[in-house]
Amino acid sequence: MIRVIFLGPPGAGKGTQAAVLSKDFEVPHISTGDILRSAVADKTDLGTKAESYMNAGELVPDDLILDLIRERLGQKDADKGWILDGFPRNVSQANFLDKLLAEIEQPCECVLNLEVPDKVLISRLLARGRKDDNEEVIRHRLEVYRQQTEPLIEFFRSRQQLVSINGHQPMDSVASDLTQVLQA
Ligand code: ADP
After folding, report:
1. What is d(CA 2, CA 17) in angstroms, rounded to the nearest whole number?
2. pLDDT at residue 154 above 90?
3. In this predicted model, what pLDDT tens digit does every residue of 113-136 receive, in sequence order?
4. Which pLDDT does position 134 carry in this prediction?
5. First-last CA distance in the chain
6. Can you spell out the DSSP letters for 98-118?
7. d(CA 84, CA 97)
8. With pLDDT > 90 as the criterion, what percentage of the chain qualifies?
């Protein structure tokens, strides 16, 4: 059973590694980015509201995300553990998650922080070429990350929950470092 939060800037490899761990540890990979992108593709109410923020590299407003997380962690498959990728992304989301996890009795001990130099992030994201992966939007997403998400590193570190991993290595090496941490 694992319950893990992935932290790290855009392009750090959270989604890739979360998918590997999800398969190995047989727990759902919950990516708020994936959920939002599929809402956009399906033209749901959520998707319509979220799309312009995503295209601009801004965070989607908390009120669109919080209910979604509560609902997702309440689903049956989340009983056996989960990997959160892309949430929490600011301090208010982290405080919300704290309360929610206490309420549903699903404690999370481990926050995995993937570290990758900025230069590498930008070239990875440009190579990925998603709709929100043009240079201007990428720079803005990194700025939003620095301002809103990076403070969570200290938030979790001060509670002894943070483990940092070098994400600037071949994918398999990152995966084995992560597995080692989780099996310790
Ligand atoms: P990245 O690989 O750049 O981290 P994600 O797939 O995690 O991308 O997220 C893509 C976009 O979805 C973000 O730029 C943001 O607009 C929106 N998003 C995802 N998760 C959240 C969240 N927890 N809070 C607010 N917005 C979010």
Report:
1. 14
2. yes
3. 999 999 999 999 999 989 899 999
4. 92
5. 13
6. HHHHHHTT----EEEEEE--H
7. 11
8. 96
Q: How far is the CA of 106 from the centre of ligand 1 (A)?
A: 23
Report residues whose beta carbon is within 6 angstroms of any ligand 1 atom. 10, 32-33, 36, 53-54, 57-60, 65, 86-87, 89, 93, 141
Q: What type of residue sits at position 165?
A: I
Is pLDDT above 90 for 55?
yes
The pLDDT confidence band at residue 46, using thresholds 50, 70 and 90, is very high
The label of the residue with tokens 């995995």 reads 112
Q: Average pLDDT over the chain, rounded to whole?
A: 97
DSSP-based three-state secondary structure for 26: coil
Dig out the tokens for 133 from the structure. 């992966």
Domains along the chain?
Answer: 2-179 (3.40.50.300)
Ligand 1, from 5, 31, 60, 84: best to mutate by most atoms within 8 Å of Cβ? Answer: 60
Of 36, 93, 120, best ligand 1 pocket probe by most atoms within 8 Å of the beta carbon: 36
